[in-house]
Every structure is written in C-alpha cells, then in structure tokens.
Design goal:
The protein has 104 residues and is α+β, with helices and mostly antiparallel strands. 29% of the residues lie in helices and 15% in strands. It contains 3 helices and 3 strands, in the order αββαβα. The protein has a 3-stranded mixed beta sheet, covered by helices on one side. It is globular and about 40 Å long. The mean pLDDT is 92.
C-alpha cells in the first residue's frame, strides 16, 4: 500500500467516527462521502452530500468533517465541498448501514 492509500484509509476511519445526528450510522457508511482526493502535498479535498438539502446539520456537518480530517496524522490542508449532484439516495448505503437500519 502506498502512502496516499494509507492516508486515505486513515481519513476513512476518521469519517466513520462522524455520525448523522438523525440516523444511527456514520457518514461514510451512509454514502455521504462522494470523493476523497489527496494531492502530492497531502492536501485533502472531500466532496460530500447530505441526506437532504434542508438537513438540519447542513451548516455544521461539513465543518465537523473538515476539523476531524484536519486532525488526521499526515493531512496538511482540508477542503470540504458540499454537493447535491448526484442527489443522495438510500442506494448509497453500505451493506453495514442497511443492516443497522434494518433494510437487509
């Protein structure tokens, strides 16, 4: 595994500690993270969505993600970009999340 893959795994583990306050599943397993891009300077771009555009945590969740990922060993700068394209659907749930939510 190269250094970027190791760093990406660390970031994913951090993202799995952040939960949507309305759903008892972490944001990574919910499928809210669309992209984790790490450049050669270990600057990280995260593209994410929310379960709905009017989600009550729309202002706080991206900031929580930015702050948590910034604390990850090896990460320099973090930019979180919020998008609603494509729109989130339950199809993006991991099997683990589906099991937790009783959908499997």
């Amino acid at each position: 595994m190269n250094q970027k893959e190791i760093l990406k795994d660390r970031i994913i583990q951090v993202l799995k500690t952040i939960h949507d306050p309305e759903i008892p599943v972490d944001i990574y397993s919910l499928g809210l993270i669309y992209l984790i891009d790490i450049d050669d300077n270990n600057d990280v771009l995260i593209e994410m969505t929310l379960t709905a555009p009017n989600c009550p945590v729309a202002e706080n969740l991206p900031l929580d993600v930015e702050q948590a990922v910034k604390q990850t060993e090896g990460v320099n700068n973090v930019q979180v970009r919020l998008t609603f394209e494509p729109a989130w659907t339950p199809d993006k749930l991991s099997d683990e999340a589906k099991l937790t939510l009783g959908l499997l």
